[in-house]
Design brief:
alpha/beta, Rossmann fold, N-(1-d-carboxylethyl)-l-norvaline Dehydrogenase, domain 2, globular
């Protein structure tokens, strides 16, 4: 009798190969598929036993090798490639088979594909996978959403391969339709914000305190042992002391890396959709904008020659380090608050039925934004599942109150000395605006009514009003 495999995966790049090997390590048989012969051969060789891990370039051979209902995961680039792979599989599938998109697909594409495949009798759901190539091998955080009955078939495999936090798997069914892809999108938006903030703090320590790479390594290592414990702070501490393998200079690798940051689109999608929903996420918005500004390298060099920059007034290292730690902690909280606010609103708009505490729990290990803060975030939303914003949670009020003054001082220092701190500045501005009972937007309402008769509301009387502002 021909052997049938438990799990199938299309796309045997580094991420896909690592994920399928992780599946095999956890007691399930797995079969891979890729158009590239070399990738197929590499998987078979690394798998070591074809009865546990096998692969083929043929879609028909691949599908026929799987147990029914077939559980097929796609780890291919988002966009038209996903549709192409689906069309290539369809002629060989049976009703009841399951396709899982594990890539960073835009959430509306997931809704479209689910509706299309439902007409063919095929179950479909999106599952965001975070943790990078190493996470795929050792245990990622997985964010599935879509058909709940279809997820039941894949649940044992996902729970086995996912990262664990205190023994709990970092995966959970999140909701219907594109809930999983949406949560992964916002995860990546938060990731953009946190990365921008860690880079700004690095910049101000280097320019304002003349911290060497070794001192930066020691500082970030110390922070990672405290309340800033997180994957991003941890890897940043290691980056500072990475040697240059090309040995073209005696300085560290970081100082030889171009300052033009690239992006794949998930941060931009988060920002764009937040605007569609009317949810402010300025810490994420500016992180996207800074990557775009960074791409203007030649223009930046030319502009730098035109304008004078303030001479940086050094700050005593111990003081600067204290301000930086507190400001970074403050802005981390604000960035998570914005992303979670967006998730809560999107859940209502798209009927995802998301539980924010559950999302925070599965982010505690495996994913890129895993951090000690997520334990407190989980607690905050377990205490009040309808919490409108993390900033008003009793769990976080004192944490914010004790660090916001350092954020103010550091933003002022950066502005005075010409050190750009846009992520920190936007986090502080968001906080000040969100916690202000009165904003000057009454003037904007008056202006709109003046030039466009858009009307306004009053504080002292119910109703909608219009004024003839000119005789």
């Amino acid at each position: 009798m021909e052997q049938k495999y438990d799990f199938g995966l299309v796309g045997l790049g580094v991420m896909g190969r690592n994920f399928i090997l992780n599946v095999a390590d956890n007691g399930f048989t797995a079969f891979g598929n890729d158009l590239d012969n070399e990738k197929v051969d590499a998987l078979i060789k690394e798998g070591g036993d074809v009865e546990k891990v096998n692969a083929s370039t043929s879609a028909k051979t691949f599908v026929n090798a799987l147990k029914t209902p077939r559980k097929i995961m796609l780890l291919v680039p988002a966009g038209k490639v996903v549709d192409s792979v689906i069309e290539g599989l369809l002629p060989h599938l049976d009703k009841g088979d399951i396709i899982i998109d594990g890539g960073n697909s835009f959430f509306t594409d997931t809704d479209r594909r689910e509706a299309y495949l439902e007409t063919r009798g095929i179950s479909f759901f999106g599952a965001g996978v975070s943790g990078g190539a190493k996470g795929a091998r050792r245990g990622p955080s997985i964010m599935p959403g879509g058909s709940k009955s279809a997820y039941a078939h894949i649940k044992p495999i996902f729970e086995a391969v996912s990262a664990k936090f205190n023994g709990e798997p970092c995966v959970a069914y999140l909701g219907p339709k594109s809930a999983g892809n949406y949560v992964k999108m916002v995860h990546n938006g938060i990731e953009y914000g946190l990365m921008q903030l860690t880079s700004e703090i690095y910049d101000v320590l280097k320019k304002g305190g003349s911290f060497t790479n070794e001192e930066l390594h020691a500082t970030y290592t110390k922070w990672n042992a405290g309340r800033l414990q997180s994957f991003l702070v941890e890897i940043t501490s290691k980056i500072f002391i990475q040697k240059d393998e090309l040995n073209l200079s005696k300085i560290g690798l970081l100082d030889q890396i171009s300052d033009k940051a690239k992006q794949k689109g998930t941060g931009k999608w988060t920002s764009q959709n937040a605007m569609d929903l009317g949810i402010p996420v300025p810490s994420i918005d500016i992180a996207v904008s800074m990557r775009e500004i960074s791409a203007l390298k030649e223009e930046r060099i030319a502009a730098d020659k035109i304008y004078d920059r303030p001479k940086v007034s050094p700050m005593e290292k111990v003081k600067l380090e204290k301000l930086a730690e507190e400001a970074l902690y403050f802005s981390f909280i604000v960035t998570y608050a914005q992303g979670l606010h967006q998730l809560a609103d999107a859940s209502k708009e798209y009927n995802y039925q998301l539980e924010i505490a559950q999302i925070a729990k599965i982010w505690r290990a495996g994913c890129i934004i895993r951090a000690g803060l997520l334990a407190d975030i989980t607690k905050a939303f377990q205490g009040d599942k309808n919490l409108p914003n993390l900033l008003v949670s009793p769990t976080f009020v004192k944490k914010v109150q004790s660090t916001v003054s350092s954020a103010r001082e550091l933003v002022a220092y950066g502005a005075t000395n010409g050190i750009p701190l846009p992520g920190l500045s936007n986090s502080l501005t968001y906080f000040d605006a969100y916690t202000s009972a009165r904003l000057p937007l009454n003037l904007i309402q008056a202006q709109r009514d003046y030039f466009g008769s858009h009307t306004y509301e009053r504080l002292d009387k119910e109703g909608v009003f219009h004024t003839e502002w000119e005789d």
